[in-house]
Amino acid sequence: QLELVESGGGLVQPGGSLRLSCAASGFTLDYHTTGWFRQAPGKEREGVSCISSKGGITNLADSVKGRFTISRDNAKNTVYLQMNSLKPEDPGVYYCAARARLYSACSAYVGPYDYWGQGTQVTVSS
Prior knowledge:
By secondary structure, the protein is mostly beta strands. Helices cover 0% and strands 45% of the residues. Strands 2, 4, 5, 6, 9, 10 and 11 form a seven-stranded mixed beta sheet that branches. β5 and β6 form a beta hairpin. It is globular. The termini are far apart.
């Protein structure tokens, strides 16, 4: 069974940091492009960052540039999103998603992604 499980969300003060994890089972992430998306209440799901199967990183949102870093640990079959300098506009449910087609490119759109985790909540508040 193919599954993505996110963890690491929580409540953090503005300026704080969180590291989200996305663990895969049933398939190997280093063959599949993986993205992080977020969805705030009342808003559409938006792409945040993406790492391709070849390790190329694409920033999908200008608002997180320089603050969020995506990475992958092939041995643990896990993709991470390190979030620093969190701002009040960053909260939402954060999802990881993977594309089924091997060696595909990153995309900022939700459509090309076939596998989704259940999401993890990020709250930024003082």
